[in-house]
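Submission sheet (multi-component)
Chains listed below:
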Amino acid sequence: MNAIWENIVDFMPSLLQGTVITIELTILSLILSLILGLIVALGRLSKNKVINRICSIYISIVRGTPLLVQMMYVYFVFPSFGITLTAFQSAIIALSFNEGGYLAETFRAGIKAVPTGQMEAAKAVGMDYSKAMQRIILPQAFSNVLPAIGNSAIILIKNSSLAAVITVTEVMHQGNLLAASTYQNMLIFTLVAIIYWILHYPLAIAVNYLEKRGGKRNVTASQH
Amino acid sequence: MLQLASIKKSFSGKEVIKEVDLSVNKGEVVVIIGPSGSGKSTLLRMINALEYPSGGDILLEGNSILFKESKGKKHPYSEKELSRFRTEIGMVFQGFHLFAHKTVLENIIEGPIHVRKMKKEAAIEEAKVLLEKVGLSDKQDAYPHSLSGGQQQRIAIARALAMKPKMLLFDEPTSALDPELVGEVLVVMKNLALEGMTMVVVTHEMGFAREVGDRIVFIDQGVIVQDAPPQHFFHSSNKNERIHKFLNTLTRNAV
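Outcome: structure written.
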């Protein structure tokens, strides 16, 4: 038993270093993918056929190819186009690109779920499309999709483990390195799993709370 | 004040409004009635270009709200330019459409602050006066979903008034309300009419039409069948067959 404790104490510093990188990967990618997702969602709702098509193609690429391939592509193929990035930068780009596609569809659904009367009422008080979007539609859409964004963030935490294959020293990669040098596979990967679980837990609680709140609000709204 | 000139509207090839001419004078209450599907809501929604007409023109105080002229040619206004005219013409919807994420007070000051660029304090000041006018001063911090339909509609009227429009459009303002709540909305509308507000009202409330309307416009199958003062329109000597049939249906349903 003591031996296990000693091992854990030995492994934790590098695993925790990795955890910090995992958190950085997740937060940065989440922010970028939220921005990208919103832009693409608006593009998909746009009446401009070219913009619309570009956004559809993007979403189709994200959905139709594995994240692992996207990540390898950014890291190993982009240099052929003269774009050389660090492993960390490549991982951020691949994760944001991937998550942005899914969030775009989430946002689009959220915007469409806002009743059309809200847009008409905004226009009737003299707002143009972009002001109505900013002031009236998006705030409601955003609060509609907040639980879904929370779920996406949870998936993003776990997806960030794929950055290990392009040598980003996040927690999965650190675990791999430790396992290769110590053969303590069971202990190390159990620790890695526990770390991911702990990272996801606050988000899971937040999603639960938001879903309950949303449910309640919809009940009061539908009574009228 | 307002002129619709040979206004037309088709939806995917189907003509809903066929060359309608209509003018509304300042201070006048024009009530549009007609069977469902007659095009009356479409006609109303064209007045503030929520539906863009397929043909014809709309003049507000002599100026087209649909086209601008340059080098002798007519160009349709962009969506952004159209929004400027909508500040002059308020609209009240059948489904109220209060901004669901904002309180009653925020609903009313939204347009004045963000479209009219009014100072917040001044907007709040005016909003409170309007709330008193519609009898809902105690609800300023409530959210729309906690209010009854009648209360929501009165707030919607206050929201439209806050923009200080030249005229108000009402699209079946009481049709979504429980019968006992219709009266409170009609009272507010009647008071507005007495104050001299120019109003165009699509409604099925014949009592309101008769009492408050200066003119009744009966529309069926996309054309104006009759445009007459209520005393003539509702008089037994009005022999128009379609109007007769329509009014009979209403009375039959009321029994």
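Remark: The radius of gyration of chain B is 19 Å.
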